[in-house]
Records
---
Amino acid sequence: MGTLRWRPVSVGTPGPRLEPKPTSEKFRSFPFRPDTVVDGWSTGKVTVRGASLRGHAHRYYGQPRQDDFVVHVLPTGRVVVAVADGVGNCVHAHVGATSAVRYVPHWVQAYAAEVGSAIDWDELIRGAAWTIVEQAKTTLGLEEPDRTAAARDFSTTLVVAIVDPRDDGSADVRITDVGDSGAWLLSREGFESLIAGKSADEGGITSSAVSGLPRVPQTLQVRSVVLEPGEVLLVGTDGIGDPLGSGEGGVGNLFKDVLGVGVPSLLEFANAADFSRETFDDDRTLVAVWPDAAVAAGAEGGDSQTYY
């Protein structure tokens, strides 16, 4: 009983500590946009944790959290994960991100609810794109849907993962993406990238240009993997992917420690995702899925931790 003090997590040199500011009226007071969202549960066949946090830059300047996520289990046992990262220079990108992720489980429930059933990925992504256009019409008070206005003000990346539990404790995973968010498999061997995330040129320079929904790519890449007991599926935005890199540095060590040895509590998971590392101040969203895993108790408070 009493006050529980979570240990601030630093990776290398931390960024400055600051108190978040409320969202500026420039980005509209409604729909309400919380600084942080945390979710998680266990079905007995899979356990999930999810957190979306406003980055330090957005907290300081009073800008909304542009990331969002949904993790949902259907009555059949099929698990749907959707993670979105609103494109930074779009004033209503946070609204586009929320529209996209909330559309995904409704579509899967309507058209592919059964465990193992096929996904029409093109139809799913086109539907998510159109729901952003419709939301732009409502938000901007337009008489007709306007794709150009939606792309200008509401653009967002999107990653969708479908997780189908197996009776042997493993799970089948199929995943696709639009934009530069990422997905990884964490195992004893380390991190394996499942989708490309940000692309680099021949000189190793990473591009910051993002083309997101409602623009739909001509071809979608779909990756299929088997998630074995002891492994963790991670789906996240570039606020996680950029500092994670190959997984060999301090951020990788942090996630191996917190996620690779069991399932943390909801607050411990969010605390880890909110790590402080100098120069990395983007919004962060991370969803983790463990197959056939039992929930472990979170760590108690204490001194701050630093990972290198």
---
Amino acid sequence: MATITLRVYGIMFNEAGQLLVTDEMIRGERFTKFPGGGLEWGEGTRECLVREFKEEMNLLVEVKEHLYTTDFFQESAFKKGDQIISIYYRVQALEPLQVRISTEPFQFDAGQLALYEATRQTESFRFIDWHTLTENDLTLPIDRIVVGLMKRGEIVLPA
């Protein structure tokens, strides 16, 4: 039976105006996407995003304004026949980043590679300069649309 999955993502910039992305390897597939993940039963979308940043980056964030919600049909990249609805918020770190920040895509350290061997899933984080960012820097179709909307000013980002 097909299901609808809600995903919540955070748009976070650093002081240099660079956008945070995560490079993930999942069961042999590579994805560059925004940090975030699936809504769990009993939580709201903002709670989900706070939890995801804490789980993935050990980072406390404040969820700011809503930026975008998918308004078209998108089939899941992971489970054919299921529909994805993605919700995007701007987030702000409330403390310094504690995770290693990569300088290149899919630049995993030994611990991240060991995690992949054990679980078939790992991720690393990096920042992309806003001025060089393109839709093609991200893998997931909805993320690409969000980048395009931001670049064209159709999603207004606070200064």
---
Amino acid sequence: MGQNAVALEGNGFKSCCESQTHASIEAMHYDYVPDEVFEICTVPGKMVDVVLEPGEKVLGVPLAGEEKHWKIRVVSGTSGLMTQQHVFIRSEKPGCRGALLINTDRRIYHINLCCTEESWMESVKWNYMRERDMQRLVHE
């Protein structure tokens, strides 16, 4: 989880897979950074809504390790006048972990999944940097 882990821990966030509290994180906001691995947690039977950038389109089917433990569906909605895709993730088996790869026309999301009975995320949203801001960071 690289930079995002540091930022989240600084705000008192503990990895949801390691948390001992029964808590819901209503909306987890991650800063999208290429090649970063993000964490998404759910509890058995609860769905996590992964909200993509308006206009961004999933290419193919998201790939999940241990597919038998995860139900994943891509659904299109609208945000203003633009189509906005959501990736819904659910598991029925507590304690399972897996990896998820979502390939879109704009980026690739690398995600570690976990299903616990302690804490979960109801939705995951991304903060996106503009291309020139990203290049500036690379050159610093």
---
Amino acid sequence: IQPGNTVEEAHMRNRQLIARWVFEKGAADKVVELVKKDGKTYVVVNDYEKVRQLFGELLAEIQRIKSTGDFAAARALVEDYAVKVDPTLHAEVLERYKKLNLAPYKGFVNPKYEVVTDENGAVTDVTVTYDEGYAEQMLRYSKDYSPLPSVN
């Protein structure tokens, strides 16, 4: 998103709508906070149970809107939470991202998680790696998760 623009892509809007709605509805109890540390903004979740409850409340409201065809409520929800970009936070994110020297992706590359266990089999850690590109990840997913046999 270029500075000064609004969120246009549906997948970005849905994430922002959820995050901003939960942030606002939980603000009084500091359920989720934006914390500044060393000039950087971090999201801190203080109450995961309350976040889960807020997700449920939002889901119920979206289902109500869909079930009743409440266009005005749908429009208000999207316009209030999904479209506008916080210009200060956006500038910080763009600056931080620029330092990574990465090309923007339209696909989603997820990390690989590896469970680390001790000699008794108890989980002691989970390592996270980003050692796959998009194509490699999709090929691995198709091999590991396809319900169809691989015949090639």
